[in-house]
Amino acid sequence: MKNRPITYSKNVFIPVTNVCRNKCVYCGFRRPAEHKDAFLMTEAEVAAILKQGAETGCTEAMFAFGESPEENAAFNARFGKQLNEMGFKTVIEYTAHLCRLALDYGLLPHVNGGVLSFDELQLLAPLNASMGLMLETTAIVSAHADCPGKIPAARLEMIENAGKLKMPFTTGLLIGIGETRQDWAESLAEIQKLHQKYGHIQEIILQNYTPNSGQENPIKDLKPPTKEDMIDLILLTKNTLTPDISIQVAPNLMSPLELIQYGVTDLGGISPVTIDYINPEAAWPKIEELKTLLSSKGYEFKERLPVHPKFVKSGWFGKETEFLIEKLSDADGYRKY
Ligand SMILES: O=c1nc2n(C[C@H](O)[C@H](O)[C@H](O)CO)c3cc(O)ccc3cc-2c(=O)[nH]1
Ligand SMILES: C[C@H]1O[C@@H](n2cnc3c(N)ncnc32)[C@H](O)[C@@H]1O
Ligand code: SF4
Hints:
The structure is a single chain. The chain has 337 residues and is an alpha/beta fold. The protein has a single domain (5-328), classed as Aldolase class I (TIM Barrel, Alpha-Beta Barrel), CATH 3.20.20.70. It is 34% helix and 14% strand. It has ten helices and nine strands. Strands 1, 2, 3, 4, 5, 6, 7, 8 and 9 form a nine-stranded parallel sheet that branches. The structure holds ligand FO1, 5'-deoxyadenosine (5AD) and iron/sulfur cluster. Iron/sulfur cluster binds at residues 20, 22-24, 27, 29-30, 66-67, 114, 149. It holds the Pfam family Radical_SAM. Keywords: 4Fe-4S, Iron, Iron-sulfur, Lyase, Metal-binding, S-adenosyl-L-methionine. Catalyzes the radical-mediated synthesis of 7,8-didemethyl-8-hydroxy-5-deazariboflavin (FO) from 5-amino-5-(4-hydroxybenzyl)-6-(D-ribitylimino)-5,6-dihydrouracil. It is an enzyme of class 4 (lyase).
């Protein structure tokens, strides 16, 4: 066995709403509020997923959804009543409630709902094991032309606020969206700078842009990154970030087998229950198959919680998740069986 394990978290994906104020050209998840497929999940729908997650031994409820949909009048016209009848003014208030529901089912919340204000972060932090926001890139790219929430300074500010709140944090780069390699280096340096200051970055996701059928318009000018691009990015990441930060790639977007030797240490959330709503055609590999493949290469495939072992041990996580983290973790901070 190699001396370091490759880690993953067993999760369910809860896409609270697919309405979003941003219009990232690569995104196949977002729907305009008027679109027939636009949704705001009901509590019953969320509960059904949580129940399946609990029954299959998942420990993470990953809430990823559209950013500030209330800025859109059509969202309020169509879904405002549903929110208000439940007693909430915003999707973030509703999500706080859904985090409590997840904890009731024995799952640890990890929210990534785009850029949040300090007050919104403060509302969600106690209810989350860890939280996340992809930096994406520090570059100004045309793929983000119509995206107030993808302004790099806004993303860096939220990542900094999470640091002030001592919230274990997941961030990362999305590559193949019109940025240069110099931009990779700059993005990684900004993340390391914040980690230096606050020590809260638990993992960095290196995500390769992947075309999918949900995209509004066919995109000709974005080319999906190659395996060689990903290897170069992994090597650069290893040279820029301190080794206490895990390096994560998504095993459904590119085969991890040829990437791990360059420094990948984590395969993120893998779900036996839900699809990857961001890349719906990219099926999750089976956990057992990954375990077999990785062990043939000499790696242990080890389950963690949505909060990485280092932070389990130092007690950095939302206070209201403590009872569950104690129950689910072993002495080393990994998943206890
Ligand atoms: O299934 C997915 N999980 C995504 N996750 C979840 C992640 O894979 C894991 O759940 C984390 O490692 C926490 O355990 C994200 C988490 C973030 O904080 C930010 C971005 C992502 C992006 C994805 C994604 O595209 N698909
Ligand atoms: C949840 C995260 O998913 C990523 N994301 C959004 N669209 C795509 C795509 N087509 N391919 C890969 N990643 C994507 C962004 O980085 C976002 O922050
Ligand atoms: S990637 Fe996130 S922010 Fe961008 S359009 Fe899709 S849902 Fe909105």
